[in-house]
Amino acid sequence: MSDYKHGDRNFDDLAEKFARKVYGGLKGEIRLAVIWRDLVATMPQILSGKPLRIIDIGGGLGQLSAKLAALGHEVVYNDLSENMLVYAQKLAEQESVSDGIIWYQCPYQDLLEKGLGTFDLVICHALIEWLAQPEELLSSLQAFMGSNGRMSVTFYNQNGLVYRNLMRGNFKVLTNQFSADPGSLTPHTPFKPELIDEWVGQLSMNVEHSSGIRVFHDYVTNPRGGHFDDSAVIDMELKHSILEPYKWLGRYIHYILQS
After folding, report:
1. Which pairing describes strands 206-213 and 119-125: parallel, antiparallel, or unpaired?
2. 6 in a domain, yes or no?
3. How far apart are CA 189 and CA 157, in angstroms?
4. Cα angle for residues 9, 11, 16 (degrees, 5° grid)
5. Beta bridge pairs of residue 76
6. Interior CA angle at 8 toward 119 and 241, to 5°?
7. Where in the sequence is the domain holding 47, given as residue range(s)?
8. Residue 212 maps to which CATH number?
9. Is residue 209 part of a domain?
10. Considering its fold, how many domains does the chain have in total?
11. Is 244 a domain residue?
């Protein structure tokens, strides 16, 4: 199902599957652990100091929005999917932070017309790979950045896609133009980090911090030893997510950008 106006992927039909398959297990825990570690490392004021203005675009199930609102920050949440919004609002109610979040359900492009002002932190995770015109996203997000603001972006990594198919012997996938199953959670557009770097440079921004998300977890076909200890897996993922060359094999890449 696509948004009629922009052709971007709407997760209404995938919300339950996304909640179950990604955040119902270790995949989601690793993603959140890496992202949260990166945010706190680059913006320690998240944990102390005056409240920040934060916008979470493509906010999905709302974990980050709820966590940030619980810390007293002023949070704006947006997602194209109405079903994702329902999940996020239920979580916010459970965490008693609903009143600390302003809710929008619309294409991200429409947010530019709502007079929201600028933010200390613009969050946009796992959205760019689902867009009909991904090259337009970063410039749109930059419009929300205040002076000294930061942008937190994740993207589906082509290096990880290639490596996973090499590991699994899916060589035919690599000799044809990549095409994801429309009903799967595999994004239809993987990106080389070099292309994202090019777009970032064109906007006169710089990558302040980079890390890989799930640099080994998704490649394990025969679990053994420490693989059966979730906390050990997360610890190893956190450690290697910022080390060369491992971070560039992450299924996703996390960038924190500055203007």
Report:
1. unpaired
2. no
3. 9
4. 160
5. 55, 102
6. 60
7. 11-258
8. 3.40.50.150
9. yes
10. 1
11. yes
